[in-house]
């Protein structure tokens, strides 16, 4: 089974400290929509973090809304990991 087929739900978040105080849900879906979210992220070079429990919680947040305060710590850990991976990748490209 292909990796995309294993993930039947996906949620995309964005965080811009200049525009909002918390990350916002910008896409959410299951089935074919989830596969499109994942495909679009991959094509854009965006890191994909697999966490089914977090996806279940984030999927309940309406599109365009900030994530609830209860999820700040978990999402902050994911974002810190993503920023670290991106920085390491950038450094490899530059060397």
N- and C-termini, Cα separation: 36 Å
Structurally, how many domains make up the residues? 1
Fraction of residues in helix: 40-55%
Biggest pleated-sheet summary: 2 strands, antiparallel
**CATH level 1 class label:** Alpha Beta
CATH topology: name from scop
Radius of gyration: 14 Å
Shape: globular
Q: Widest sheet: strand order?
A: 1-2
- The number of helices is 4
Derived structural class: alpha+beta
Question: Could you explain how this protein is built, in words?
Answer:
With 95 residues, this protein is α+β, with helices and mostly antiparallel strands. The protein has a single domain (3-94), classed as 3-Layer(aba) Sandwich (name from scop). 48% of the residues lie in helices and 14% in strands. It has a two-stranded antiparallel ribbon.
């Amino acid at each position: 089974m292909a990796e995309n087929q294993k993930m039947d739900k996906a949620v995309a978040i964005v965080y811009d400290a200049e525009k909002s105080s918390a990350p916002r849900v910008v896409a959410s879906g299951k089935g074919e929509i989830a596969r499109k979210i994942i495909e679009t992220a991959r094509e854009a070079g965006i890191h994909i973090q697999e966490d089914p429990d977090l996806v279940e919680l984030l999927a309940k947040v309406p599109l365009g809304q900030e994530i609830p305060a209860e999820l700040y710590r978990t999402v902050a850990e994911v974002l810190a990991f993503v920023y670290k991976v991106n920085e390491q990748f950038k450094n490899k490209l530059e060397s």
